[in-house]
Amino acid sequence: MSGKNKKAGTTGRKKNPGKAMVLYTTALVLLLVALFFINQANKDGTQDLTRVDVQPSIADQPVIGSEDAKVTLIEFGDYKCPSCKKWSQDVYPVLKAEYIDTGKMKLAFVNTLFHGDESELGALAGEAVFSQNKDAFWVFNEAMFNAQPSANHDGLWITEEKIAELATTITPQIDIEKLKNDLSNRTTLPQVQVDNALVEKYRINQTPTLMINGITIANPFDIESIKSVIDKELGV
């Protein structure tokens, strides 16, 4: 066998710093790629979804859609919240046309009082309208969000006078004098307190917050993510 003998004092192959650097760089690139795809999954709404053990009760809440719908979407909303207005005008119509009107999903509205006295007054008004006519509530709900000023939503605008004015424009018509009395006497405060208890129990900290069959949606304006969750719940 031909070959050169190892020199005295050597015990193996010399280390190759260049090769070690290549391996380190490759590992770093693979890690960054993995993090990228995890981040993209989160953005696309395909991340693991956490469902609460018991979803909020919608008993005696305003609900639109088929009672037998397989999917329930709960909107925690506030008439003083500009994001709620945007959601009501931009996202809700899309979901209504595709899922609510087709009997696949129902939607419940839970008052969320994050903007003080005006939020409470708006909630009292919505519950008062709902107590008179369940269908009228959804027309009033839309009218309230449309009436929210775009320039200065923090300014005073939810007043008993404004509520009465809006109520006269909706159909089905409601008893305006009864509505005024309900507001003056805070007749529907118990219903509003039920909503507030749900907000506290489920630790709602932003409006709008959406829960689909007990699953909280990270971004209420990501329509594709919302539809993905709904379709998954429908078994599509």
UniProtKB/TrEMBL annotation:
Gene Ontology molecular function, alphabetical: oxidoreductase activity
A Pfam family of this chain: Thioredoxin_4
Looking up InterPro entries in the UniProt record yields: Thioredoxin-like_fold, Thioredoxin-like_sf, Thioredoxin_domain
Q: Which SUPFAM superfamilies match?
A: Thioredoxin-like
Which UniProt key words apply to this protein? Disulfide bond, Membrane, Oxidoreductase, Redox-active center, Signal, Transmembrane, Transmembrane helix
List residues traversing the bilayer: 21-38
The question of whether Membrane is a record keyword is answered with yes
Q: Which residues form the Thioredoxin domain?
A: 28-235
* Family assignment from sequence similarity: Belongs to the thioredoxin family. DsbA subfamily.
What is the name of the protein in this document? DsbA family protein
